[in-house]
Every structure is written in C-alpha cells, then in structure tokens.
Amino acid sequence: MSRPDPRTAQRPPDSLFTLVTDQWTQPYWDAAAQGKLVAAKCENCVTFRMPPTPFCPQCRSQQIDWIELPGTATLYSHTVVERAILLELADCIPYVPAVVEPDGAPGIRIITNIVESSIEDIVSGAKLSVLFDPVEGGAIPRFRIVKDAK
User: Using a CB cutoff of 8 Å and minimum separation of 24, what contacts does 126-129 make?
Assistant: First the structure.
C-alpha cells in the first residue's frame, strides 16, 4: 500500500464512523446523502441551532426549518494529527479535525475534517468548500481549502 502525501490532509477511515441518527438529526444526514449541507433553524425565533436539538435554546420551540446552505465555510479551529492514536489511523496521517463556521447560518459551528488540502494552507480564517464522502447509510460532509478565496 502506498503512503499518502505527507503534506496533504487525509481522510480518517470510514471504519471509524458509525452513522447514528434520531428524529432531530435525520434531516441533516438525509440532506448530506443527497450532497446538500443544511442547518436547523427555529421556525419561531429564527435562531440557527447545530447540532439540532429537541428544543430551541432561545425560545424552547420544537419547530425546525431545515435551510440549505451554500456549501462554503470559514475555518474556525483545527489541529493537525501526525501520530496515529489508533492502529486504523496509521495510513491516514496527517488528518485534520476541524471546527468550521458555515456560510448562511450565523452563530453555528460544525465539527468535521479538512481533506484534500495542503497542510501549509490550513490556517484559521481560511475559506472552505464542502464535499461529501459516501459511507454506509449516507455521506459525511467534509471540507477542503478554497485556494483562490480572497
């Protein structure tokens, strides 16, 4: 097996991901399976809430609108993992867990991975675009650096 490029953010193995949903999160994963990034927005007070919870943290409403987002984001925080803490990660180094702020949904953040990007380009404030990695039962939204963003 060939080693991945040591300067490019790799994908964690699918075997470490188990999709578990409930009535509040299922619409998010259904949209991801269709290649769409969405966010939960309270119908009552229009507060975005991610992860989607049974009650709005602002007004306690249970009514949710699912808003399709443009699929772009800003990198809020990240770390570059260069040592495999699990044997399954040995061929996926380096990988980059991250927190991103999706465009079109003020006030929320999504935990994800940065992939297909040069480690040197991964800096807080970087512009990102979403991509969807198919897995059993759906797809995982992950992000990559947008090189030409100003």
Answer: 126/74, 126/75, 127/72, 127/73, 127/74, 127/75, 128/72, 128/73, 128/74, 128/75, 128/100, 129/71, 129/72, 129/73
In a domain, 51, yes or no: yes
Residue 15 forms part of a structural domain: no
Does residue 31 belong to any structural domain of this protein?
Answer: yes
Q: Are 122 and 74 in contact (CB under 8 A)?
A: no
Is 90 inside any structural domain?
yes
Q: What is the pLDDT of residues 17-73, one digit of tens each?
A: 888 899 999 999 999 999 999 999 999 999 999 989 899 999 999 999 999 999 999
Cβ atoms of 19 and 136 closer than 8 Å: yes
